[in-house]
Amino acid sequence: MKLYGIKNCDTVKKARKWLDENGVAYEFHDFKKDGLSSEQLTEWEQTLDWETLINKRGTTWRKLPDEVRDNMTAQSAHEIMLENASIIKRPVVERGETVTVGFNADEWAAWTS
Fold first, then answer.
1. Per the confidence metrics, is the pTM higher than 0.85?
2. Catalytic site residue 15?
3. Catalytic member of 3, 9, 12, 54
4. Which residue in 2, 50, 71, 106 has the fewest CB atoms around it within 10 Å?
């Protein structure tokens, strides 16, 4: 399993703590520090839609000009996520061919047992 996120994000911290406490092996990729390739983002976009990946509740989204938010397309969302990974909902988790976004302890318990 590979967990993508930002080290100091509260949700990522909760997810990592849960994984550690439940003995689930994972690799952590901090996309602020380690970057995020266009190819990786495209893979996620093929599994999930861009609207699932964009965190519309965060400050990065709110800081975007209204015109950018109101006229966002798949292509512009891709570019914005590459320019500022903070706008990506976290954590992004790859488990084999499955890609999920966010942390839910009950759901995670179901697929780690």
1. yes
2. no
3. 9
4. 106
